[in-house]
Design goal:
Helix content: 10-25%
CATH superfamily of the largest domain: Naphthalene 1,2-dioxygenase Alpha Subunit, Chain A, domain 1
Strand order of the largest sheet: 1-13-14-15-16-17-18-12-21
CATH architecture of the largest domain: Alpha-Beta Complex
Bound molecules: FE2/S2 (inorganic) cluster, fe (ii) ion
Structural class: alpha+beta
Number of domains: 2
Shape: globular
Distance between the termini: 40 Å
Largest sheet: 9 strands, mixed
CATH topology of the largest domain: Naphthalene 1,2-dioxygenase Alpha Subunit, Chain A, domain 1
Number of helices: 10
Length: 447
C-alpha cells in the first residue's frame, strides 16, 4: 500500500460537521457591495503572489502586479533581498512603471522624480522650490511586505498579517519534499473570464463535477470520493488527494485503448502483463511507483529520491485560500490563480501556469497532449469570448471549466437560485465561504 501523509492540523474535509453551515448567499457572486467588502476586508489583508523569483535574478530587476485598481512593484535589491512598494509616485501619485523590467532607478513620467529601487528618492526637479523642505531624504515610496516561498514572490498590504509561513500553514511542511523553487514556468496564460472570481474557488474545492465535466480524467486519476482523502486546514486552505490510477468505476470499454496504458508504457511497464482491469489499475499503480523510484533519477528527476511513494504517483490538489489552486505531482505542477476584475464583479482573471522541474531537454507536461519546451514561457493574455478564443488550450482540464463559467454566472443572477444542496464531498465549498465570511466580518483566521 501507499504510505499516507496526513498533517496533524488536517481536519476531515468530507465531513459537513466540520463546518458551521453558513448559508451561501447569492449576492456575493454579483453585487458591487460584496466586491467592495472583499477588497476592504480580504484582498488588502491576504498574501498575494506577484510572480516567480526567477523573474528577478539581478539587482534592479522588478516585477509589477496589478490587482483590481491597485498596483505593486517588487524589486531585487543590491544585497539580494526583495523590497515591495505601491506603484505610486511619492510626489503626486503617478503610476511609476507599467510593466516588468530592469533599471537602476525609476524616473516618474510626470515631473521626473527619480526613485531608487530601494524606495528612496534620489533626485527631483527644482529641489530648492519646496518651502516644506527638500523632498530628497524625506519622501519615500510606501512599502508593502514581501516574502518568498516555493519560488513564488509574495506580498501583503497588511502590516499586521501573519508571517507568510504561518499564513500558508501547514502547506510548506506538507510539501517539504518538493523543490518548487527550482521549477520553470513553461506555460503562462491569463484569461479574462465572464464570471465572478469565486466560480473557481468553488470549482476547485470539489471534484464532484469532474465525472460530468472532465470525463477524460477518471481513467487516469481515481476521482472516486470513497478512495480520495479530503483535508481542511485552520488557515482556510484545503486539499484533496486522489490516487494516481484509474478509477475502478470509470472504465473505458474493453475494446478501446486505455489512457493508463500510456502511463505504464512511459515507465517501461507492459500493460498486457495484467490479467484483469482491476489488476492493471491496482497492481499497475504499485508497479508504477516502483518504476518511477527506479527510473526517475536516471531520467533527470533527481528529486524523486526525496519523494514518498504517495508523492511519486498521487494527485494532490491544494486550494490556498482564497484564490490559488495547485496540483503538485512528481513531474510538475499545474498552478491556477484567479483574481477579481477591477470593477466588474461578474468578470475575473484566470491564470494558468504550468511549472516543470528542470531536467535536460524536453519534458511532457502533466495532463497535456503535447511536449512543452523546457524554457520560461512568455506571457499570453486572452479574453474568453467562447471556447474558440482559447482553442489551443483545449488539452487543459480547465478549458472545460471555463466553458461552464458563463452559465454559472447566469444561474447566480437567477430568481431560481436556491441554497446549494451540497454533497459531503463538497464540504470544502461551504468551508471556503465560511472563511470568506470570517474575513468580511473582520475575524480572519490567524490574525
Ligand atoms: S507625480 Fe511623480 S514626479 Fe510628480
Ligand atoms: Fe474542473
Amino acid at each position: 500500500m501507499t504510505d499516507i501523509i496526513t498533517h496533524p492540523l488536517a481536519i476531515d474535509g468530507k465531513d459537513p460537521r466540520n463546518t458551521r453551515g453558513d448559508r451561501i448567499s447569492q449576492d456575493r457572486y454579483y453585487s458591487r457591495e460584496w466586491m467592495q467588502r472583499e477588497w476592504d476586508h480580504m484582498w488588502t489583508r491576504v498574501w498575494h503572489i506577484a510572480g516567480r523569483e526567477n523573474q528577478l535574478p539581478d539587482p534592479g530587476d522588478y516585477i509589477v502586479h496589478d490587482f483590481m485598481h491597485e498596483s505593486v512593484i517588487i524589486a531585487r535589491q543590491a544585497d539580494g533581498s526583495l523590497k515591495g512598494f505601491y506603484n505610486a509616485c511619492g510626489h503626486r501619485a503617478q503610476k511609476l512603471v507599467h510593466t516588468n523590467g530592469s533599471q537602476d532607478s525609476w524616473t516618474c513620467p510626470y515631473h521626473g522624480w527619480e526613485w531608487s529601487t530601494d524606495g528612496s528618492l534620489l533626485d527631483a526637479c527644482d529641489r530648492d522650490d519646496f518651502p516644506q523642505g527638500d523632498p530628497v531624504g524625506k519622501i519615500r515610496l510606501i512599502d508593502v511586505r514581501v516574502d518568498t516561498w516555493g519560488g513564488f514572490v509574495w506580498y501583503t498590504m497588511d502590516d499586521k498579517a501573519p508571517p507568510l509561513l504561518k499564513y500558508l500553514e501547514p502547506l510548506p511542511e506538507v510539501y517539504k519534499n518538493f523543490p518548487f523553487e527550482t521549477m520553470v514556468r513553461v506555460r503562462w496564460v491569463r484569461v479574462e473570464i465572464p464570471c465572478n472570481w469565486k466560480f473557481s474557488s468553488d470549482n476547485f474545492n470539489e471534484s464532484y463535477h469532474t465525472r460530468t465535466a472532465h470525463p477524460q480524467v477518471p481513467p487516469i486519476i481515481d476521482q472516486d470520493h470513497f478512495t480520495s482523502r479530503f483535508e481542511m486546514f485552520p488557515m482556510g486552505h484545503a486539499r484533496i488527494i486522489q490516487m494516481g490510477r484509474p478509477s475502478l468505476r470509470d472504465r473505458v470499454p474493453e475494446d478501446q485503448p486505455h489512457p493508463f496504458d500510456d502511463t505504464l508504457r512511459a515507465w517501461e511497464i507492459d500493460p498486457a502483463s495484467y490479467a484483469t482491469y482491476e489488476d492493471k489499475a491496482m497492481q499497475g499503480w504499485l508497479d508504477l511507483k516502483a518504476a518511477k523510484r527506479r527510473l526517475g533519477p536516471q531520467r533527470g528527476y533527481r528529486h524523486f529520491d526525496q519523494l514518498t511513494d504517495e508523492e511519486l504517483t498521487e494527485s494532490p490538489f491544494g486550494v490556498l485560500f482564497p484564490n490559488i489552486a495547485f496540483g503538485a505531482g512528481a513531474e510538475g505542477m499545474s498552478f491556477f490563480r484567479w483574481e477579481p476584475h477591477r470593477d466588474d464583479p461578474e468578470k475575473c482573471y484566470f491564470d494558468l501556469w504550468e511549472l516543470a522541474f528542470p531536467i535536460d531537454g524536453q519534458y511532457r507536461a502533466r495532463l497535456t497532449e503535447f511536449a512543452v519546451e523546457m524554457k520560461e514561457a512568455d506571457y499570453d493574455f486572452r479574453i474568453y469570448s467562447g471556447p474558440e478564443a482559447v482553442a489551443d488550450l483545449h488539452d487543459q482540464v480547465v478549458f472545460q471549466d471555463w466553458a461552464l463559467a458563463p452559465g454559472q454566472q447566469a444561474g447566480w443572477r437567477s430568481r431560481g437560485y436556491q441554497e446549494p444542496y451540497l454533497a459531503a464531498q463538497e464540504t470544502r465549498v461551504r468551508r471556503f465561504h465560511e472563511v470568506l465570511n470570517d474575513y468580511l466580518d473582520g475575524k480572519p483566521p490567524g490574525w
